[in-house]
Amino acid sequence: MTTAQQTENKGQQTRTVAELVEDIKALTTEIQELYCLDQIPWVLGVSWGKDSSTVLQLVWNAIAALPPEKRTKTVYVITTDTQVENPVVSAWVRKSLQNLKIAAKEQGMPIDPHLLQPVIQDTFWVNLIGKGYPAPRNQFRWCTPRLKINPANQFIREIVRANGETILVLGTRKAESSKRAATMKKHQVDRVRDRLSPNASLPNSLIYTPIEDWSNNDVWIYLNQWNNPWGQSNKELFTMYRGATADNECPLVVDTSTPSCGDSRFGCWVCTLVSKDKSMEAMIQNDEEKEWMQPLLDIRNELDIKDDRDKRDFRRIWGEVQLFERNKDGKISVDPIPGPYTKYWREYWLKRLLEAQIKTRRTAPENMRDITLITLEEMSEIRRIWLEDKHEFDDSLPRIYQEVTGEEFQDPRPGADYSLLGRDEWIVLEEICEGDAMHLELMAKLLDTERQYRKKTRRVGIYETLEKCFNTSSRSPEDAIKNARLKRELSEAVSQGDVAKVKQMTLGDVAAINEVDEGQSESDEEVTWASMKFKKENSEE
């Protein structure tokens, strides 16, 4: 049992319902005083789980108790839609936001709800299927900033820019985890007042955490005993948490000694940062009406494999081999860091996702039949990345879309369907290269680079771009890795001051250059396959 859980259980034994009631009264007064103190706008972040729903309800009730003439300061309620949320939770969020908006208008509350989304370039599928980013891991947690942090921070920055400063209200609690408790304790040192701390990541903003000392039971007692002021049913939220608990046991909290089901968690259905998606598994297991989500769980589990090296490029996403030293079972080796998913696997994930989308639309309940796992705009951006950044001019996305859905892909991007190179030219290249993947990649890059510069009025930079094509794609995987090892050894020799080894390695390079370009005087220019080839052709002329 973690320290946080021990602390929480201790609190459950000593805190009575009467004490909770008194705490709620004190918090209500505190919220009212802080709200009326100045004109600094509030931004209340909600996920529509139990904690953020509790804070929103506390703030709403406190402000509603004020005279109408004092409700002058806007409270911006923000929710971030990652576009890969658990579909059941996503539907709940949208319903909650709609109810909140209607109730705020009817009751004259200064509540302004906003549903935030990541920009198209940052969405999960654009990065994974388009750029080839591997499924997120704790060592490469690329999803959290792009999907969650950036949209919220951008909104907060805009409020700060317009008003000078802001107060961010959150449902953070110390009982969530020992790590959370330690972080909150660290920030207490610089507090302005109780539960009001500076925001380390965003200047000119403070963080207010009214329920930081509450336990899970406190939260559930409040939600079940105090009516929701915007017409939402807290019982539905309670039922949703119950359905997401693996053993389906979430007892009604009637007193402070009764355990709760607060450990069930919701998040992105594609999340591979946890070993299992226990909430979705439990939903499917506990409710026959949610079995339609099985294709989503299958994709998530397929993404979450321990070793996916066979699905990824031997180079990093910028085209270079990068080595790292690892110790596996006491054996030290220097291996290349695997890069993005290969063309085959990016196309594979697109097919799997479209197939899952079709299946879920057929089997989901009537109110979920319009579910969208990947949007048209995301597929348009993925297509652009494949065509323009990766030079894959066979343009496979429209073909995959039509094969899976039976419908023609309608790209909303102007001019997206115009190209001098296409599938026919790609097939010819494949035949010429006779199965040599690196040769095919190099030829495709060179041809498409020429095509891209052909449309420009000035072709400045074309030679550098062509040079980059050779640098990243002219060697076989074995030769590229060998070259990276030589560079690493040379760098280590330089750092260790091993002059003899440096001379041996560099003289070896000069000898190799002289063999290729015999009789040519030495120069300080960087020697590459492309430059040597072009110089040789010039000398023959």
What does this structure look like?
It contains 20 helices and 8 strands. It is α/β, with parallel strands linked by helices. The strands form 2 sheets. Strands 3-2-1-4-6-5 form a 6-stranded mixed beta sheet, sandwiched between helices. The protein has a two-stranded antiparallel ribbon with strand order 7-8. Helix 3 (50-64) packs across helix 8, helix 5 packs across helix 12 and helix 15 packs antiparallel against helix 16. It starts with a helix and ends with a helix. The model is unreliable at 1-13, 247-264, 510-514 and 519-530 (pLDDT under 50). This is Phosphoadenosine phosphosulphate reductase domain-containing protein.
Helices and strands in order:
Blueprint: H1 3-14, H2 17-36, E1 42-45, H3 50-64, E2 75-80, H4 87-107, E3 111-116, H5 124-131, H6 143-163, E4 166-169, H7 178-187, E5 196-198, E6 205-208, H8 216-225, H9 234-243, H10 278-286, H11 294-303, E7 323-328, E8 331-336, H12 343-363, H13 376-389, H14 396-405, H15 423-433, H16 437-454, H17 462-473, H18 477-496, H19 499-516, H20 529-540
Parallel strand pairs: 1-2, 1-4, 2-3, 4-6
Antiparallel strand pairs: 5-6, 7-8
Protein name: Phosphoadenosine phosphosulphate reductase domain-containing protein
GO molecular function: catalytic activity
Biased composition (Acidic residues): 516-527
